[in-house]
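Box S2. Input/output pair 1.
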Amino acid sequence: MSGSGKGGNNRKNRHRFSGRRDETQKHDFKKQTDNPLTGGKIEKTRAQHEQSRWTAPVLPANPITTPDCPWCGKPIKDIATAISDKDTGSPVHFDCVLARIGEMEALETGDSVCYIGGGRFGIIHYNNPPDTRDFTIKKVFEWEVKDNISEWRKPISEYFSIT
């Protein structure tokens, strides 16, 4: 590298690293510092520098149940990804809802069923299917009401809200 200073290596008083630090670079855990608020000197010890140890949160006593999906009959292994049935409120597979909406609606070329948030699904039309940035929402399905919390979600929320 040239010594013109354009390479970003132009700091003054730069020392080569020889494998040992000199006394000014050592991190001393016990040093005297002036505190302008108290007017005196405060001694910092190693105990003040150490962070408290992490303790695992206590899990709730009731285990998470794995109910069966009423639409396909298979167990819902990941209950956190389940969604409420529109009619009964029981948990169903997320993929089962996508498949059911896809069967109910006539999808054209470039259309797909997507979750658009807030308990809603939509039929999305991609103008150029390889480029998923350019799309329009053709139809919206209000699947879950945001204000209604299903009973089956309450014990699950205890596991996700422990920290």
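Box S3. Input/output pair 2.
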Amino acid sequence: MRGANNKMNEELVKHLVRIKEMIETTIEIVRADGQETLAPRKIENHSKIKKVSTHIDFSKPIRPFVKQHAVGMNGSKKFTLLLAHLAGGDHKKNVPLDEIQKCWTRMTAKSLLGMKFNRFYSAEAKNNDWVNTEKSGLYHLRPSWKEIFDEGR
């Protein structure tokens, strides 16, 4: 077995050396044409970049609210967003998990939440310090919940 492995490694090294030589030759040809450096290509980002206003309108009905804000969010962010709407943005208001799940189940369309409810989302939101639960089945927002709108998280 070791002999076969060594032979494969030798073949792989030979191929890599050939590839390296071809790349070096290509670079020499390009430079010979008078181009010292290759111009970098402009890479367009076609992903949806969403800008969130600092004001969040909790008086908006839940479906348009979710449609506006949930684009590009993962499950834990969507869970937090739904909790935020149900709590009206109030950190002190507790919302039952059953109520969150019931609302979620009515909004699984791709244009809204786009996925089935999973209790893992609530655990992840809690791990990210966006929500908390002091009594089983009752969730409330944490002061850092607005981090769900940050692109990097």
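Caption for Box S3: DSSP finds five helices and three strands in the chain. The first strand starts at residue 95 and ends at 96.
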